Amino acid sequence: MVRPLIIFIAAAITNNFILTYFLGLCPFLGVSAKVSSAIGMGFAATFVMTMTAIITNVVDHLILRPLHLDFLQMIVFIFVIAVLVQFVEMVIKKASPSLYKALGIFLPLITTNCIVLGLALLGAMRNYNLIENTFFGFGAGVGFTIALLLISGIREELEVRDVPKALKGAPITLLIAGLMAFAFMGFSGIITLQ
Amino acid sequence: MASNNRNLGFEFFKGFFKENPVLVQLLGLCSVLAVSNTVVNSISMGIAVLFVLFFSSFVIGLVKDLIPSEVRIPAFIVVIATFVTIADLFLKAKFPDISKALGPYIPLIVVNCIILGRQEAFTKKNKLLPSIMDALGMSAGYLIAILLMGIIREILGFGSILGFRIFGSSFKPILVMILPPGAFLTLAMLIGFMNFITRKE
Amino acid sequence: MRKEYRMIIVLTVIIAFAGSILAYTYVSTQEAIQRNLDNSKKTALLSVVKGTESYEEQVIDDKTSILTAKGSDGSVLGYGVMITGGGFQGAIKLMVGFNPSGDTVLGIEVLENVETPGLGNRIVEDGFKKQFEGTTPPIEVLKGQKPEKKSQVQAITGATISSKSVAAIVNNAQKVLKENLSGETGKDSLEVKVEGYLQKVMPGVRMEKRGSLYFLEEEGEILGYGIIARGLGYSDSVAVFLCVDTKVSRIEDLLVLDGSEVAVNRTKFEEFSQKLKGKALPLNIKGVEVVTGATVTQDAIISAVNTGFEILKKEIKNGIK
């Protein structure tokens, strides 16, 4: 049970997807201006990523590998993700309109987001089993949410600060992300990934 | 004819500076940040993107009228994913070292917003030839941006270019430039610089 | 309804096309990709066990396999252990070369790692890898001070964890190798070598081990004594088997057993040890002909002989019959 936990912490903190793999930068720049939308996006992404991790792992181990169709991995994963997001959207819409209202607009954004496909591909590359991959996906989602929350908090503050004109918007966000990546480097080494 | 040529030229060159996909449109940032720690990696990534964007635009430009608009996104993604997989397998077979260095970022070209973005924003609505010029120009713009990143980061982070040391032994490399924070800082400064220039004009 | 059909047909056609193109590309690149994998394995093995002509691979599990490196004459030159372990940022995959007895590391090669560029990533640099040549695991990693023993290496500044990870993987590699080797021999491999050699050159002679001494007897009569001794060489300790007469005054026979530098120049050292036969003990370094380009190793053999001689003399004086 230790290994899945280590994988979880690694994905969430030490090898944070945004700050060390640079995955999921589009929403990071786009949705991170307000804390409320960052929370919505974070939850939606965490949910989709955990589900993706489970389903792509099953598809990979039960269908693609036994049939030696590894070269179709990428296409299959993308399809799985697209279908999954669509499905999740439908279910949430039926089951909880209020949750749909909160998360709905973020879901389509996630389909074409590299963080989800990156998660599926990395998990397959590292040969994680189902439990490990589930923790990996959940950890990656939590890490994404943490980074998004932190940066949105800082950006809300920046609204009222005097940022040089040329650096307004994306450049200052990237600068902050750089400093955050610096800070997160301090976590590296607290656990060792196998 | 003459105006047509000028248009083609415009479609080609706009991606270099005015509509640079990375520095102005802020697309495809994840690979730009992730693999630009050396010049060699930057060039390899740039060429891979060029290959995928060119052939995707070409094929989609050819068959776009046959595809019902409701399923165009999945259809585009399949086409793109096919070329990305080809590029990935080719690199693994011919250039294993580069393939290893670029890691998962080659497969991730498939979700690079530049590729799908260009199909949606341009190829879908235009003729084949302008689409190809647009694809070439955009990938050139991507290559320019990632190469700039690569040059800056390799010089400061390793003290070398293409592996050749350019400073004496007294130069102490600024390690952080080849680490993730350095990537963010370099890109932030480049985009800021770009904003600065275009604002003056 | 018609529109839905069209959607499905178009998508199916596109996917079928894509699938067949990919299948074709996959099949045509697969051979090259496999060859690249084999090549990188071979190159790594060659750089850790010099002179390897061919190898046999024994897969232990999905993270470990043992490659038996053979020379042109089919003799076992050593083993390459291909093994994956945890590093600072992620997995590190190493090829660790061992001498035939599995006691000494001949060299290491880093096959895969995702350590921090510029810091942990420096484990791929020669300066770090070279330190492992000739070490005897379990290896200890020193921080900021020069190694003194054959089982110590110095950590890379600012990358202690990566350095320690590599050392731990090397130690683990030896464990795995020993576990798999012992099944075949069952005995200390040096001893096996000595027995094999004696049977070849002196058939009728019985060898009996008492303590560290070997008594060589023929029909109840003691012909002489033997001992396994070590001397410190250039990058490795060199083990010899020394046979002396009953008076412990001169060398009856000398067999160079083991050592990475001996493996490279085996014939030269065999000639050298033949020349030492019959010389009086203790050996005087000045009196012997130098092996070109291997003075230090040769000194190691001489010091091993003299060490062995000292022990023999003392043991026999103490009255072990």
Properties at a glance:
heterotrimer; A: 194 residues; mainly alpha; 0% strand; C: 321 residues; alpha+beta; 2 domains; five-stranded antiparallel β-sheet; elongated
Description of the structure:
The complex is a heterotrimer of chains A (194), B (201) and C (321). Chain A has helices at residues 2-14, 17-21, 25-30, 35-64, 73-95, 97-103, 107-111, 114-125, 130-158, 170-185. Chain A has 194 residues and is an all-alpha fold. The mean pLDDT of chain A is 84. The radius of gyration of chain B is 18 Å and the shape is globular. In chain B, 50% of the residues are buried. The model of chain C has no long low-confidence stretch (mean pLDDT 79). A five-stranded antiparallel sheet of chain C has the order 1-2-3-4-5, with helices on both faces. In chain C, strands 8-9-10-11-12 form a five-stranded antiparallel sheet, with helices on both faces. Chain C has a two-stranded parallel sheet with strand order 6-7. The chains are: A mainly alpha (194), B mainly alpha (201), C alpha+beta (321). Chains in contact: A-B, A-C, B-C. Chain A binds chain B through residues 19-26, 29, 71, 74-75, 78-79, 82, 112-114, 117-118, 121-122, 125, 164-168, 170-175, 177-179, 181-182, 185, and chain B through 26, 29-31, 33-34, 74, 77-78, 81-82, 84-85, 88-89, 104, 107-108, 110-113, 116, 176, 179-185, 187-189, 191-193, 195-196, 199.
Draw up the topology in text.
The complex is a heterotrimer of chains A (194), B (201) and C (321).
Chain A: H1 2-14, H2 17-21, H3 25-30, H4 35-64, H5 73-95, H6 97-103, H7 107-111, H8 114-125, H9 130-158, H10 170-185
Chain B: H1 2-13, H2 29-35, H3 39-63, H4 72-94, H5 96-102, H6 113-123, H7 128-158, E1 160-161, E2 164-165, H8 180-200
Antiparallel strand pairs in B: 1-2
Helix pairs in contact in B: 1-7, 3-4, 3-6, 3-7, 4-5, 4-6, 6-7
Chain C: H1 2-48, E1 54-61, E2 64-70, E3 76-86, E4 91-98, E5 105-112, H2 126-130, E6 140-142, E7 152-154, H3 160-185, H4 189-201, E8 206-210, E9 213-218, E10 221-232, E11 237-245, E12 251-258, H5 260-264, H6 266-276, H7 295-317
Parallel strand pairs in C: 6-7
Antiparallel strand pairs in C: 1-2, 2-3, 3-4, 4-5, 8-9, 9-10, 10-11, 11-12
